[in-house]
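Sharing a chain and its predicted structure for anyone who wants a worked example. Both blocks are below, sequence first, tokens second.
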Amino acid sequence: MSLDIYIPIILFISPYKSARFHVLLHSQPSLCLSVVASRYLSPPSFLLHSGEMSLNIDPPETSFPAAGGNVTVKMISIAESKLAFKVKTSNNQCYRVKPVFGFIEPKADAPLEIMRLAGPPKDDKLVVQWAEVPPEETDPKAPFAAQAQQGEVVLPLKAA
């Protein structure tokens, strides 16, 4: 019998790798639990800002001509700590974004450039995933490699 339980603890064994431990339960010595811990382990959803988002995008929706165009939106952090972000699109053939990974300092904002290439009119979306990171973090990809995403913001993209 295998049972996976994720416990919200933080270990500083390695800043970028997960650590796996086997825990023997005292009540049932035959049951061994496998526990994964990471520097970026996401807390349970009920601990995340009481439903408040740590990252917003302004404007909350964008439109493009089907022939293509450029728009710059602002990612706004309302978090008390540094955020790492990762940007994904639902249509990589028509959209390019810059930057794809990055950081936003506490209570600051950062520009996000969106370029639409010529293509058929279609409604798509852009997803900005985020994770709170320590102030000394220098690699914006690390929390996402450790599967520590804490939230996401969806930006509808309309092309007509």
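Comments welcome. Residues 1-39 form one domain.
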